[in-house]
Amino acid sequence: MSTSPRAGGATPVPPGRAGGRLLALVVLCAGQLMVILDGTIVNVALPTISDALDFTPANLAWVMNAYLIGFGGLLPLAGRIGDLIGRKRVFVTGLVAFVAASALCAAAVDQAMLIAARFIQGAGGALASAVVLGMLVTLYERPGDRARAIGAFTFVGSGGASIGTIAGGVLTQTVGWHWIFLVNLPIGLAAAALAIRVLPAERGLGLRAGADAAGAVLVTAGLMLGVYTIVRSTEQPWPYTLGTAAGAVVLLAGFVLRQARARTPLLPLRVFAVRSVAGGNAVQLLMIAGMFGFQFLVALYLREVLGYDPLHTGLALLPASLTIAVVSLGVSGRLVARFGPVRMLAAGLATVVLGFAILAQLPSQHGYPVLLPALIVLGAGFATAMPALTGLAMSGGDPADSGVVSGLFNTVQQIAGALGLAVLSTVAAAHTRQLVAAGTGAAAAQTAGYRVAFVVAGGLVLAALALGVTLLRRTGAPARPAAPVTVDRAEPAGTGRS
């Protein structure tokens, strides 16, 4: 294999080091697990945190919003920094920042301290998450191996969400809310220590190859304002929401213009000329908008309609995660290698649509017998579609742009999740209010509102299916191998230096 000049004169990792790649995959998944775990584990503990620190309902939302704004706003910048100074350095730095912020969260004595620490957590999570996919696709060159690695990554994402729901209930009810943050410390520190030892060292392109400060300011400010607009859209008057949305659009439009003219752009617009990158992210926007909102609404249905406590809510959602584990770890990689990513993406999305059709039949009493098969179908569909989609979106473009493509993919995921949650929760709440005003009972009205939202979510995924088949049908062949992982000639992989 030839030396990659874009990587600073480095040599590739020997392809036979399967054990080393497996350990690297475990480290990357552990870091991602910590970031995913934090989202749902905090959500369960919010009422207890509110009582302990005297939050008002409006201020309490900032415990989640501060994290989302820091995370979503910094992802593209984090991905590009990974390309410039080395993805390993950025990953380890993100883990350390996340752990330090988690300790600050646990030590918080007032609202301002907790909200500030949550923003730092989001920034650390962005640094760690933005480069993970870029490292995965360079660690695993063969399409079949890459599909299985991405399947494991997909399971960690969905499994971490369910584990967080259960762990949040257990920790909050037994030892206190501080421990939902302290649990990150052993995971993060262990992952950082192992990452220094086992992840291949990279020199990166150098800051001179793409240090676009003006672009960084524009995209970070635009994304932060955009995420702020989305997460606050249900609480602010429409003129205010439209004003902040317009501000975000202006900043992001300025960023695009800057990237078109900059000598060393932060986000090279050439990546959007690759059909798999542009199409994959467009499909993901619609798919994640439907799936993320579904998780939130099902949890509300279990707690507010069926009366489940936080622990039993987490257990009730567990079949979806178990299904995702079985399919993503044991089946999806082989299916993608045999039938191609586009066919499996289409099959997975069609299965998700079926799951939403089942959810649209939920009753207001004794609903779990209907919910259970829907969770299994949705889990199977997601576990089939997401690895195929991830492989497609990461398979094209210059290997030197893998970090920025990874950051873009994660950014779209975060924006889609926030947007889907805002839209679906608004639809459900509006329909529920109409029925209550007409004299319908509270449980029946809430269930009907959720059913309408599930129909909308199914429509979003159906649109993703149509878009995917249209845009990605020519990319159905197995993805070409990624450029080999490169390491500094003077520093063999796994020596422990970063």
Can you describe this structure?
This protein is mainly α and 498 residues long. 76% of the residues lie in helices and 1% in strands. The protein contains 17 helices and two strands. The chain has helices spanning 18-53, 57-85, 87-106, 111-130, 132-139, 143-174, 179-182, 184-198, 213-231, 238-261, 275-305, 310-330, 332-339, 341-359, 368-394, 402-437, 442-472; strands at residues 10-12, 486-488. Strands 1-2 form a two-stranded antiparallel sheet.
What portion of residues is helical? Answer: over 70%
In the CATH hierarchy, the third-tier topology of the largest domain is known as Growth Hormone, Chain: A
What's the CATH class of the largest domain, please? Answer: Mainly Alpha
**Which architecture name of the largest domain does CATH use?**
Up-down Bundle
Number of helices: 17
Shape: globular
What class do helices, strands and sheet pairing give?
mainly alpha
The number of domains is 2
List the helices and strands and how they pair.
Elements: E1 10-12, H1 18-53, H2 57-85, H3 87-106, H4 111-130, H5 132-139, H6 143-174, H7 179-182, H8 184-198, H9 213-231, H10 238-261, H11 275-305, H12 310-330, H13 332-339, H14 341-359, H15 368-394, H16 402-437, H17 442-472, E2 486-488
Antiparallel strand pairs: 1-2
Helix pairs in contact: 1-2, 1-4, 1-6, 1-8, 2-3, 2-4, 2-9, 2-16, 3-4, 3-8, 5-16, 6-12, 6-13, 6-15, 9-10, 9-16, 11-12, 11-15, 11-16, 11-17, 12-15, 13-14, 14-15, 14-17, 16-17
